[in-house]
Design goal:
Elements (H helix, E strand, L loop, with lengths): L8 H10 L3 E5 L6 H6 L2 E5 L9 H4 L8 H11 L8 E6 L2 H14 L4 E6 L6 H22 L5 H23 L8 H9 L6 H10 L13 E7 L6 H8 L2 E8 L15 H10 L11 H15 L3 E7 L3 H16 L3 E7 L7 H16 L2
Parallel strand pairs: 1-2, 1-3, 3-4, 5-6, 5-7, 7-8
Helix pairs in contact: 6-11, 7-9, 10-14, 12-13
The structure holds iron/sulfur cluster.
Length: 365
């Protein structure tokens, strides 16, 4: 099967700019993509990126700050965001909140830096709070771009994102039948971080869906949980050991596949989608909600084990993991915890542990 050609971030940025759009750099995790699109601002997410020399960023940060933030700041300081008109730093954790303050108070980039407070917990109050935050963001975007999209335009983009979320859910649902390796599957999932929704929908359409077998024969289904699958070699290591990633609980992937909103008010509808989306440590989901979600995912996909793939110094995930591991183990679900730095290659020790974990799961079949 010939590999699918996915355009690079750089290509997409150039194309969007030459079509007259502004580009915004978006730091992790949750934000309303549709709001930016309604302003003709193309959002491109900055999850690190991995492989950046973090010396420049580390001059501003404590050594115990995660590599996502270390890389994100270094990338900016190295000139990696020259092309963008504005920067959004959602306040999804203390480290990102700190990054927003460093940008605004110390680095003072030429571009506008906007923030967005993400509330904790799934309550009506959280929806109201986030709806107000999104409305404030609307006003900031109107000031920066000089545009003021009407309600109809906002709703058009919201509905398009809702459709895209439904397509992504469908793509995940067919995972066991796709002939794609774990790396290929997640390259497609993660292209949503920078592709416009219609291009992304086309990519999902041309991605191979069906193979004669239901799941790669003899392979062990694995769920990966954490922030992001970086370094992505982890996916190759899982496949080479005889596993395949059948689903995930990753903040950059499945945790951002939101459902439909119900409100007529576009700000409230965008807020509903985020607040009521899959449970997530950075949205203050309860241990019950997250463990029920992980257990349900394991049962629905027939996965035999969960790999917690954690970014070193990621406090939100570190807080939940011991309790989640216990809950899953009580249900008979085997777990493995690995720690990674997105700028470092996967350690030999981590590779050996993945191999041993999958061997153990195979032995139990
Ligand atoms: S890896 Fe964890 S600590 Fe770092 S930015 Fe993401 S949520 Fe925050």
């Amino acid at each position: 099967m010939p590999p699918i050609k996915i355009p690079s971030r750089k290509e997409v940025i150039q194309r969007e700019k030459s079509s007259g759009k502004d580009v915004a750099a978006i730091y992790p995790i949750h934000y309303p993509r549709e709001l930016f699109r309604a302003f003709d601002v193309h959002p491109v997410e900055v999850w690190g990126p991995p492989g950046v020399d973090t010396k420049m960023g580390s001059a501003h940060l404590q050594s115990y700050i995660c590599s996502v933030v270390q890389s994100g700041l270094s990338f900016y300081l190295e000139g990696g965001l020259k092309e963008v008109k504005l920067i959004l730093v959602p306040h999804c954790c203390d480290s990102l909140q700190g990054l927003g303050s460093i940008f605004k108070d110390f680095v003072k980039p030429g571009q506008e830096v906007l923030t967005l407070y993400i509330p904790r917990g799934i309550t009506e109050e959280s929806v109201r709070f986030l709806s107000d935050e999104i409305e404030k963001l609307y006003k900031s975007l109107a000031r920066v771009t000089g545009r003021a999209p009407a309600r109809e335009r906002l709703m058009e983009e919201i509905l398009l994102e809702e459709e895209t979320d439904a397509l992504v859910k469908d793509f995940y649902a067919g995972r066991k039948k796709t002939p794609l390796s774990s790396r290929e599957f997640y390259a497609i999932i993660r292209a949503r971080e920078y592709l416009p929704p219609r291009d992304y929908a086309r990519l999902l359409q041309i991605a191979p869906r069906q193979s004669p077998e239901s799941g790669p024969p003899g392979r062990v289904g694995i769920i990966v949980s954490g922030l992001l699958p970086e370094p992505m070699e982890i996916l190759d290591v899982i496949d080479e050991a005889g596993g395949f990633v059948v689903a995930d609980d990753l903040a950059c992937c499945m945790r951002r596949v939101y459902g439909k909103g119900a409100a007529e008010n576009p700000f409230k509808r965008m807020a509903e989608r985020i607040v009521q989306g899959p449970p997530d440590s950075t949205k203050g989901g309860s241990v019950d909600e997250i463990s029920v979600s992980l257990t349900g995912l394991t049962e629905a996909t027939g996965a035999r084990g969960v790999i917690f793939y954690n970014v070193k110094f990621c406090e939100p995930e570190d807080f939940y993991r011991p309790m989640l591991k216990k809950r899953l183990q009580n249900k008979g679900i085997k777990t493995l915890t690995l720690e990674a730095d997105i700028n470092q290659p996967l350690s030999q020790q981590a590779i050996t542990r993945v191999r041993a974990f999958i061997e153990m799961l195979k032995g139990e079949a």
